[in-house]
Protein backbone atom coordinates (compact mmCIF):
# COMPACT_ATOMS: atom_id res chain seq x y z
CA UNK A 1 0.00 0.00 0.00
CA UNK A 2 1.17 3.53 -0.69
CA UNK A 3 -0.01 5.58 2.25
CA UNK A 4 -1.88 8.74 1.43
CA UNK A 5 -0.31 11.54 3.38
CA UNK A 6 -2.96 14.07 4.28
CA UNK A 7 -0.41 16.84 4.03
CA UNK A 8 0.14 16.04 0.39
CA UNK A 9 -3.53 16.54 -0.38
CA UNK A 10 -4.53 20.09 -1.06
CA UNK A 11 -7.58 21.57 0.60
CA UNK A 12 -8.93 22.06 -2.89
CA UNK A 13 -8.87 18.31 -3.46
CA UNK A 14 -10.70 17.64 -0.22
CA UNK A 15 -13.26 20.32 -1.02
CA UNK A 16 -13.68 19.04 -4.57
CA UNK A 17 -14.15 15.52 -3.32
CA UNK A 18 -16.75 16.61 -0.77
CA UNK A 19 -18.66 18.66 -3.28
CA UNK A 20 -18.45 15.96 -5.94
CA UNK A 21 -19.89 13.50 -3.48
CA UNK A 22 -22.54 15.93 -2.29
CA UNK A 23 -21.25 15.54 1.20
CA UNK A 24 -22.47 18.14 3.65
CA UNK A 25 -20.39 16.81 6.52
CA UNK A 26 -17.15 17.23 4.59
CA UNK A 27 -17.82 20.72 3.32
CA UNK A 28 -15.49 23.52 4.32
CA UNK A 29 -16.63 25.41 7.36
CA UNK A 30 -18.12 22.41 9.12
CA UNK A 31 -16.43 21.33 12.33
CA UNK A 32 -16.00 17.82 10.96
CA UNK A 33 -14.27 19.06 7.84
CA UNK A 34 -11.98 21.34 9.84
CA UNK A 35 -11.00 18.50 12.14
CA UNK A 36 -10.46 16.16 9.21
CA UNK A 37 -8.53 18.57 7.05
CA UNK A 38 -6.36 20.45 9.57
CA UNK A 39 -4.75 17.92 11.88
CA UNK A 40 -2.33 15.22 10.91
CA UNK A 41 -3.60 11.64 11.19
CA UNK A 42 -1.90 9.56 13.88
CA UNK A 43 0.06 6.67 12.35
CA UNK A 44 1.15 3.49 14.10
CA UNK A 45 3.74 0.89 13.18
CA UNK A 46 2.99 -2.69 12.16
CA UNK A 47 5.65 -4.48 14.25
CA UNK A 48 6.40 -7.26 11.74
CA UNK A 49 7.30 -4.84 8.94
CA UNK A 50 7.82 -1.33 10.30
CA UNK A 51 5.15 0.01 7.92
CA UNK A 52 3.00 2.77 9.39
CA UNK A 53 -0.78 2.88 9.03
CA UNK A 54 -3.44 5.41 10.07
CA UNK A 55 -5.13 4.42 13.32
CA UNK A 56 -8.76 4.76 12.18
CA UNK A 57 -10.16 2.67 9.36
CA UNK A 58 -13.61 1.40 8.48
CA UNK A 59 -15.51 -1.83 9.08
CA UNK A 60 -17.83 -2.92 6.30
CA UNK A 61 -20.14 -5.61 7.64
CA UNK A 62 -22.96 -3.26 6.55
CA UNK A 63 -21.71 -3.04 2.95
CA UNK A 64 -23.97 -6.01 2.10
CA UNK A 65 -26.29 -3.81 0.03
CA UNK A 66 -27.76 -3.63 -3.46
CA UNK A 67 -30.03 -0.54 -3.50
CA UNK A 68 -28.44 2.28 -5.55
CA UNK A 69 -28.82 4.82 -2.73
CA UNK A 70 -27.05 2.48 -0.30
CA UNK A 71 -24.27 1.80 -2.79
CA UNK A 72 -23.89 5.57 -3.28
CA UNK A 73 -23.26 6.31 0.41
CA UNK A 74 -20.66 3.55 0.58
CA UNK A 75 -18.96 4.89 -2.54
CA UNK A 76 -18.63 8.30 -0.87
CA UNK A 77 -17.05 6.62 2.16
CA UNK A 78 -14.54 4.64 0.07
CA UNK A 79 -13.69 7.70 -2.00
CA UNK A 80 -13.15 10.00 0.96
CA UNK A 81 -11.44 7.59 3.36
CA UNK A 82 -7.98 8.02 1.80
CA UNK A 83 -8.58 11.69 0.97
CA UNK A 84 -9.12 12.29 4.68
CA UNK A 85 -6.03 10.34 5.70
CA UNK A 86 -7.43 6.86 6.42
CA UNK A 87 -6.72 3.59 4.63
CA UNK A 88 -7.89 0.40 6.39
CA UNK A 89 -11.01 -1.20 4.90
CA UNK A 90 -12.03 -4.32 6.82
CA UNK A 91 -14.32 -6.84 5.16
CA UNK A 92 -14.89 -10.62 5.17
CA UNK A 93 -16.21 -13.39 2.98
CA UNK A 94 -18.98 -13.79 5.55
CA UNK A 95 -20.34 -10.24 5.14
CA UNK A 96 -22.70 -11.06 2.28
CA UNK A 97 -21.98 -8.83 -0.72
CA UNK A 98 -19.50 -6.60 1.14
CA UNK A 99 -16.39 -7.82 -0.69
CA UNK A 100 -18.13 -7.57 -4.07
CA UNK A 101 -19.45 -4.07 -3.35
CA UNK A 102 -15.98 -2.93 -2.29
CA UNK A 103 -14.39 -4.57 -5.35
CA UNK A 104 -16.82 -2.85 -7.69
CA UNK A 105 -16.59 0.57 -6.04
CA UNK A 106 -12.81 0.58 -5.69
CA UNK A 107 -12.51 -0.38 -9.36
CA UNK A 108 -14.79 2.53 -10.28
CA UNK A 109 -12.91 4.95 -8.02
CA UNK A 110 -9.47 3.71 -9.10
CA UNK A 111 -8.09 4.16 -5.58
CA UNK A 112 -6.97 0.60 -4.75
CA UNK A 113 -3.38 1.70 -4.05
CA UNK A 114 -4.55 4.13 -1.40
CA UNK A 115 -6.40 1.49 0.63
CA UNK A 116 -5.26 -1.19 3.06
CA UNK A 117 -7.68 -4.02 2.25
CA UNK A 118 -8.28 -6.52 5.01
CA UNK A 119 -10.48 -9.59 4.57
CA UNK A 120 -11.14 -12.92 6.24
CA UNK A 121 -11.54 -16.59 5.39
CA UNK A 122 -15.10 -18.02 5.43
CA UNK A 123 -17.07 -18.86 8.54
CA UNK A 124 -18.33 -22.21 7.25
CA UNK A 125 -18.78 -24.45 4.23
CA UNK A 126 -16.48 -26.85 2.42
CA UNK A 127 -12.89 -25.62 2.52
CA UNK A 128 -11.25 -28.72 1.04
CA UNK A 129 -10.31 -26.78 -2.10
CA UNK A 130 -8.27 -24.35 -0.06
CA UNK A 131 -6.89 -22.37 -2.97
CA UNK A 132 -10.37 -21.73 -4.38
CA UNK A 133 -11.53 -20.66 -0.93
CA UNK A 134 -8.72 -18.13 -0.57
CA UNK A 135 -9.00 -16.96 -4.20
CA UNK A 136 -12.68 -16.07 -3.71
CA UNK A 137 -11.74 -12.84 -1.94
CA UNK A 138 -9.25 -11.83 -4.65
CA UNK A 139 -11.97 -12.22 -7.28
CA UNK A 140 -14.65 -10.41 -5.32
CA UNK A 141 -12.31 -7.58 -4.32
CA UNK A 142 -10.95 -7.41 -7.90
CA UNK A 143 -7.38 -7.25 -6.72
CA UNK A 144 -4.23 -9.34 -7.11
CA UNK A 145 -2.91 -8.30 -3.70
CA UNK A 146 -4.64 -8.38 -0.33
CA UNK A 147 -3.01 -6.36 2.43
CA UNK A 148 -4.29 -8.42 5.36
CA UNK A 149 -5.97 -11.84 5.22
CA UNK A 150 -7.20 -13.27 8.51
CA UNK A 151 -8.72 -16.50 9.80
CA UNK A 152 -12.27 -15.62 10.88
CA UNK A 153 -13.42 -16.85 14.29
CA UNK A 154 -11.18 -19.95 14.13
CA UNK A 155 -13.16 -21.73 11.42
CA UNK A 156 -10.82 -24.27 9.73
CA UNK A 157 -7.70 -22.60 11.14
CA UNK A 158 -5.48 -25.65 10.73
CA UNK A 159 -6.49 -26.05 7.09
CA UNK A 160 -6.44 -22.41 6.01
CA UNK A 161 -3.63 -20.76 7.97
CA UNK A 162 -0.84 -22.72 6.19
CA UNK A 163 -2.35 -21.70 2.83
CA UNK A 164 -2.49 -18.05 3.88
CA UNK A 165 1.18 -18.37 4.74
CA UNK A 166 1.93 -19.73 1.25
CA UNK A 167 0.08 -16.78 -0.28
CA UNK A 168 2.11 -14.46 1.92
CA UNK A 169 5.35 -16.10 0.74
CA UNK A 170 4.15 -15.64 -2.84
CA UNK A 171 3.59 -11.94 -1.99
CA UNK A 172 -0.11 -12.10 -2.89
CA UNK A 173 -0.98 -11.42 0.74
CA UNK A 174 1.08 -8.89 2.67
CA UNK A 175 0.04 -9.73 6.25
CA UNK A 176 -1.78 -12.65 7.87
CA UNK A 177 -3.68 -12.95 11.11
CA UNK A 178 -6.68 -14.22 13.05
CA UNK A 179 -9.80 -12.57 14.42
CA UNK A 180 -12.57 -13.01 16.92
CA UNK A 181 -15.17 -10.91 18.67
CA UNK A 182 -16.26 -13.58 21.13
CA UNK A 183 -14.85 -13.88 24.65
CA UNK A 184 -15.22 -17.67 24.56
CA UNK A 185 -12.62 -17.63 21.74
CA UNK A 186 -10.06 -15.60 23.71
CA UNK A 187 -8.34 -18.80 24.95
CA UNK A 188 -7.78 -20.22 21.43
CA UNK A 189 -6.71 -16.76 20.27
CA UNK A 190 -4.09 -16.55 23.01
CA UNK A 191 -2.90 -20.06 22.13
CA UNK A 192 -2.61 -19.19 18.44
CA UNK A 193 -0.72 -15.99 19.25
CA UNK A 194 1.76 -18.00 21.33
CA UNK A 195 2.24 -20.79 18.79
CA UNK A 196 2.09 -19.12 15.37
CA UNK A 197 3.82 -16.18 13.83
CA UNK A 198 1.03 -13.68 13.11
CA UNK A 199 1.34 -10.14 11.78
CA UNK A 200 -2.09 -9.06 13.04
CA UNK A 201 -4.96 -10.07 15.22
CA UNK A 202 -8.36 -8.41 15.35
CA UNK A 203 -10.41 -8.52 18.53
CA UNK A 204 -13.32 -6.69 20.08
CA UNK A 205 -12.67 -3.96 22.64
CA UNK A 206 -14.89 -1.08 23.67
CA UNK A 207 -15.72 1.00 26.75
CA UNK A 208 -18.38 -1.57 27.67
CA UNK A 209 -16.28 -4.65 26.78
CA UNK A 210 -12.75 -4.29 28.12
CA UNK A 211 -11.71 -7.89 28.73
CA UNK A 212 -9.41 -8.23 25.73
CA UNK A 213 -7.12 -5.68 27.44
CA UNK A 214 -6.38 -8.17 30.23
CA UNK A 215 -4.30 -10.78 28.41
CA UNK A 216 -4.71 -10.42 24.65
CA UNK A 217 -3.42 -6.88 24.17
CA UNK A 218 -0.41 -7.39 26.51
CA UNK A 219 0.49 -10.60 24.67
CA UNK A 220 0.22 -8.78 21.34
CA UNK A 221 2.74 -6.22 22.63
CA UNK A 222 5.08 -9.03 23.80
CA UNK A 223 4.84 -10.91 20.52
CA UNK A 224 5.00 -7.86 18.23
CA UNK A 225 1.55 -8.44 16.74
CA UNK A 226 -0.48 -5.52 15.38
CA UNK A 227 -4.05 -5.29 16.70
CA UNK A 228 -7.16 -4.09 14.90
CA UNK A 229 -10.11 -3.43 17.19
CA UNK A 230 -13.44 -4.66 15.88
CA UNK A 231 -16.75 -3.50 17.38
CA UNK A 232 -15.15 -0.40 18.99
CA UNK A 233 -18.59 1.23 19.39
CA UNK A 234 -20.16 -1.85 20.94
CA UNK A 235 -20.85 -3.77 17.73
CA UNK A 236 -23.46 -3.15 15.05
CA UNK A 237 -26.05 -5.36 16.66
CA UNK A 238 -25.53 -4.04 20.19
CA UNK A 239 -24.09 -0.59 19.61
CA UNK A 240 -24.36 1.72 22.59
CA UNK A 241 -24.28 4.78 20.34
CA UNK A 242 -28.10 5.18 20.18
CA UNK A 243 -28.23 5.05 23.98
CA UNK A 244 -25.79 7.96 24.19
CA UNK A 245 -27.95 10.21 22.04
CA UNK A 246 -29.10 13.12 24.18
CA UNK A 247 -26.58 12.41 26.94
CA UNK A 248 -24.23 15.38 27.34
CA UNK A 249 -20.60 14.86 26.49
CA UNK A 250 -18.52 15.25 29.66
CA UNK A 251 -16.52 18.50 29.83
CA UNK A 252 -13.23 16.60 30.00
CA UNK A 253 -13.74 15.46 26.38
CA UNK A 254 -12.49 18.92 25.37
CA UNK A 255 -9.10 18.14 26.96
CA UNK A 256 -8.39 15.80 24.02
CA UNK A 257 -10.36 17.74 21.42
CA UNK A 258 -13.23 15.23 21.26
CA UNK A 259 -16.46 16.89 20.19
CA UNK A 260 -18.69 13.79 19.93
CA UNK A 261 -19.23 10.57 21.88
CA UNK A 262 -17.81 8.54 18.99
CA UNK A 263 -14.60 10.58 19.02
CA UNK A 264 -14.23 10.33 22.81
CA UNK A 265 -14.81 6.57 22.89
CA UNK A 266 -12.64 5.82 19.85
CA UNK A 267 -9.86 7.96 21.37
CA UNK A 268 -10.29 5.98 24.59
CA UNK A 269 -9.96 2.82 22.55
CA UNK A 270 -6.88 4.06 20.69
CA UNK A 271 -5.16 5.03 23.95
CA UNK A 272 -5.29 1.44 25.20
CA UNK A 273 -1.80 -0.11 25.19
CA UNK A 274 -1.46 -2.66 22.41
CA UNK A 275 -4.11 -1.21 20.11
CA UNK A 276 -2.84 -0.42 16.61
CA UNK A 277 -6.05 0.76 14.91
CA UNK A 278 -9.84 0.75 15.20
CA UNK A 279 -12.26 -0.24 12.44
CA UNK A 280 -15.68 1.21 13.35
CA UNK A 281 -18.54 0.15 11.07
CA UNK A 282 -18.95 3.16 8.76
CA UNK A 283 -21.47 3.54 5.94
CA UNK A 284 -22.05 7.31 5.72
CA UNK A 285 -19.90 10.42 5.38
CA UNK A 286 -21.06 12.00 8.65
CA UNK A 287 -19.74 9.03 10.57
CA UNK A 288 -16.58 8.77 8.46
CA UNK A 289 -15.50 12.35 9.22
CA UNK A 290 -16.53 11.94 12.85
CA UNK A 291 -14.62 8.69 13.32
CA UNK A 292 -11.51 9.82 11.45
CA UNK A 293 -11.34 12.87 13.72
CA UNK A 294 -10.70 10.46 16.59
CA UNK A 295 -7.44 9.50 14.91
CA UNK A 296 -6.00 13.00 15.11
CA UNK A 297 -4.74 15.21 17.89
CA UNK A 298 -4.45 14.12 21.51
CA UNK A 299 -5.38 10.80 23.07
CA UNK A 300 -6.29 10.28 26.74
CA UNK A 301 -3.50 9.62 29.23
CA UNK A 302 -3.90 7.01 31.97
CA UNK A 303 -5.60 9.48 34.33
CA UNK A 304 -8.12 10.60 31.72
CA UNK A 305 -8.80 6.99 30.75
CA UNK A 306 -9.83 6.36 34.36
CA UNK A 307 -12.14 9.38 34.30
CA UNK A 308 -13.75 8.16 31.08
CA UNK A 309 -14.32 4.71 32.60
CA UNK A 310 -15.70 6.20 35.83
CA UNK A 311 -18.03 8.47 33.88
CA UNK A 312 -19.20 5.58 31.70
CA UNK A 313 -20.04 3.56 34.81
CA UNK A 314 -22.37 6.36 36.00
CA UNK A 315 -24.36 6.31 32.75
CA UNK A 316 -26.06 2.99 33.45
CA UNK A 317 -25.76 1.81 29.83
N1 LIG B 1 -14.77 -11.53 14.21
C1 LIG B 1 -14.51 -10.44 13.52
O1 LIG B 1 -13.52 -10.41 12.87
C2 LIG B 1 -15.44 -9.25 13.54
C3 LIG B 1 -16.59 -9.24 14.32
C4 LIG B 1 -17.40 -8.09 14.30
C5 LIG B 1 -17.02 -6.99 13.55
N2 LIG B 1 -15.88 -7.05 12.78
C6 LIG B 1 -15.45 -5.89 11.97
O2 LIG B 1 -15.44 -4.76 12.81
C7 LIG B 1 -16.22 -3.72 12.22
C8 LIG B 1 -16.86 -2.89 13.31
O3 LIG B 1 -17.81 -3.63 14.04
P1 LIG B 1 -19.36 -3.27 13.96
O4 LIG B 1 -19.61 -2.50 12.73
O5 LIG B 1 -20.13 -4.51 14.21
O6 LIG B 1 -19.59 -2.39 15.25
P2 LIG B 1 -19.12 -0.93 15.74
O7 LIG B 1 -18.11 -0.37 14.84
O8 LIG B 1 -18.79 -1.06 17.16
O9 LIG B 1 -20.47 -0.13 15.67
C9 LIG B 1 -21.12 0.15 14.47
C10 LIG B 1 -22.40 0.92 14.84
O10 LIG B 1 -22.00 2.22 15.27
C11 LIG B 1 -22.66 3.18 14.49
N3 LIG B 1 -21.71 4.27 14.24
C12 LIG B 1 -20.54 4.25 13.55
N4 LIG B 1 -19.93 5.45 13.60
C13 LIG B 1 -20.73 6.25 14.34
C14 LIG B 1 -20.65 7.60 14.74
N5 LIG B 1 -19.61 8.37 14.43
N6 LIG B 1 -21.67 8.11 15.49
C15 LIG B 1 -22.74 7.35 15.83
N7 LIG B 1 -22.86 6.06 15.50
C16 LIG B 1 -21.87 5.51 14.75
C17 LIG B 1 -23.11 2.49 13.23
O11 LIG B 1 -24.27 3.14 12.81
P3 LIG B 1 -25.09 2.76 11.49
O12 LIG B 1 -25.86 1.50 11.86
O13 LIG B 1 -26.01 3.93 11.29
O14 LIG B 1 -24.11 2.55 10.40
C18 LIG B 1 -23.33 1.06 13.68
O15 LIG B 1 -24.65 0.88 14.17
C19 LIG B 1 -17.22 -4.47 11.32
O16 LIG B 1 -17.77 -3.63 10.34
C20 LIG B 1 -16.34 -5.56 10.77
O17 LIG B 1 -15.57 -5.07 9.71
C21 LIG B 1 -15.08 -8.15 12.78
In short:
With 317 residues, the chain is an alpha/beta fold.
Any descriptors?
binds NADP nicotinamide-adenine-dinucleotide phosphate; alpha/beta; disordered N terminus; TIM Barrel; 317 residues; eight-stranded parallel beta sheet; single chain; two-stranded antiparallel sheet; 12 helices
Describe, in plain words, how this protein is organized in 3D.
The protein is an alpha/beta fold and 317 residues long. The chain has twelve helices and ten strands. Helix 3 packs across helix 4 and helix 7 runs parallel beside helix 8 (216-223). It starts with 10 loop residues before the first helix and ends with a helix. Residues 1-28 have low confidence and may be disordered. NADP nicotinamide-adenine-dinucleotide phosphate (NAP) binds next to helix 11.
Number of strands: 10
CATH topology: TIM Barrel
| Order of adjacent strands in the largest pleated sheet | 3-4-5-6-7-8-9-10
Biggest sheet, in brief? 8 strands, parallel
Give the number of domains: 1
Bound molecules: NADP nicotinamide-adenine-dinucleotide phosphate
Radius of gyration: 19 Å
Taking pLDDT < 50 over at least 5 consecutive residues as the criterion, the unreliable ranges are: 1-28
Instruction: State the helical fraction.
Output: 25-40%
CATH class equals: Alpha Beta
**Order of SSEs, N→C?**
HHEEEHEHEHEHEHEHEHHEHH
Q: What is the CA–CA distance across the termini?
A: 39 Å
Report the mean per-residue pLDDT as an integer.
Answer: 91
Amino acid sequence: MRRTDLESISRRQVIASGIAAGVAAALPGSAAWAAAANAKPILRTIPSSGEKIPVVGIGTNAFDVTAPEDIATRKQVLQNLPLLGGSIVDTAQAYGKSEEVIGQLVAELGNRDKLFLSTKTPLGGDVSNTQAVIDTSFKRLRTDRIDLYEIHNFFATDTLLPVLREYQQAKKVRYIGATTSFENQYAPLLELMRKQKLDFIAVNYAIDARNSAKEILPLAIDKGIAVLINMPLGGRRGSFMPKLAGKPLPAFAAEIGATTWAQLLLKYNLSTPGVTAVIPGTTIMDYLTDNLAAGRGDLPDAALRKRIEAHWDTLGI
